[in-house]
Amino acid sequence: MPVHSDIRSDHRSSAVPAGGAGVRADGDLALRQRLSEVLLRIAAAAERVGRSPHAVTLVAVSKGFDAEAIRAGRRVGQADFGESRAQELRRKSEEIGPGVRWHFVGRLQRNKVRDVVGLASLIHSVDRFELAEAIAERMAPRGGVQRVLVQVNVGDDPAKGGCPVDETIQLVARVRGLEGIACEGLMTIPPLGVDPRPLFRRLRELRDDLRGRFPEVQHLSMGMSGDFETAVEEGATIVRVGEAIFGQRPQRADARD
Ligand SMILES: *Cc1c(COP(=O)(O)O)cnc(C)c1O
User: Fold this and answer.
1) 63, 125, 180, 203 - which has most CB atoms within 10 Å?
2) Ligand 1 centre and the CA of 51: distance in Å?
3) pTM surpassing 0.70?
């Protein structure tokens, strides 16, 4: 266990309100405690390897939780939220309005690109050129630039999306040639049941290699509830954490679209 286990909360998501200000205050308190515990664990992991905690952005992955969970997260100071389904992102952003920095972390199909481009401040999951092209075509006429990460399948997991390791440099180089899109780093999701550390390390080496040629390739989006401290130790600049912040996810909400 990490340090700071003294501030753990056992409220989990059982404090979901049945209405009433007192219930909501309890919910906020539990959320605040879980969020601050995650932030402390990130800071401790960073310090263990001599990194600044400020070099790591926490994305609260709110997929499967309702808009009220996101509002509560904002009330306790969280700014970045992640969603993995295009329509869920669109719906929640309309419900909540401005003031949230959205991250899209799920599998993205070309026909869903319009729901995400311009709305997500960062799309973490570009894994093929055709998808980058669709994003660029959508963004370029607006004169903006959609920031993206290239998702890499460092674990060679057939169940996971992601560009094969040995095609990543070529994909990033081709994305660079497009107008309206910028690749600012790499993302990965390690397979279940394997030690993620060597895979995080592999992604970092790949990023270092790329950054030597393309200086804008900076970010490493890696680490989830079960392994974000390992990811921070291995150089993550963005961690994507859901259940450790919001409690147990109420429904199955994997990246399906
Ligand atoms: C759901 C999800 C997460 C967060 O997972 P938790 O186990 O809830 O922390 C992170 N990244 C991606 C791509 C996800 O789909």
Assistant:
1) 203
2) 24
3) yes
Instruction: Answer yes or no: is the C-beta of 89 below 6 A from any ligand 1 atom.
Output: no
Q: What would the pLDDT profile of 45-71 be if each residue is shown by its tens digit? A: 999 999 999 999 999 999 999 999 999
- What pLDDT, on a 0 to 100 scale, did the predictor assign at position 162? 96
What proportion of the chain, given as a percentage, has pLDDT over 90? 82
Q: Per this entry, what is the length of the chain?
A: 257
Q: Where are the alpha helices (DSSP H) in 97-214?
A: 113-116, 129-139, 168-176, 197-213
Cβ 253 vs Cβ 85: under 8 Å: yes
CA-to-CA distance for 171 and 161, rounded, in angstroms?
A: 14
* CA–CA distance, 231 with 218 (Å, rounded to integer): 15
36 CA → ligand 1 middle, Å = 18
Work out the angle between the directed axes of helices 168-176 and 129-139 (0-180°, nearest 10).
20
Q: Name residue 239's beta-bridge partners.
A: 58
**Which residues are 81's β-sheet partners?**
60, 102
Instruction: Report d(CA 188, CA 198) in Å as an integer.
Output: 12
Residue spans of alpha helices (H) in 49-154: 67-75, 86-96, 113-116, 129-139
Interval between CA 33 and ligand 1 midpoint (Å)? 20
Query: Ligand 1: which atom is nearest the Cα of residue 189?
Result: 13
Q: At residue 189, does pLDDT exceed 50?
A: yes
Tell me, what amino acid is at 123? I
Looking from the CA of residue 242, the nearest atom of ligand 1 is 8
How far is it between the farthest Cα atoms of the chain?
Answer: 56
Nearest ligand 1 atom to the CA of 246 is: 8
3-state secondary structure of 195: coil
Tell me if 222 CB under 6 Å of ligand 1.
no
Supply angle C-alpha 218, 83, 13, rounded to 5: 120
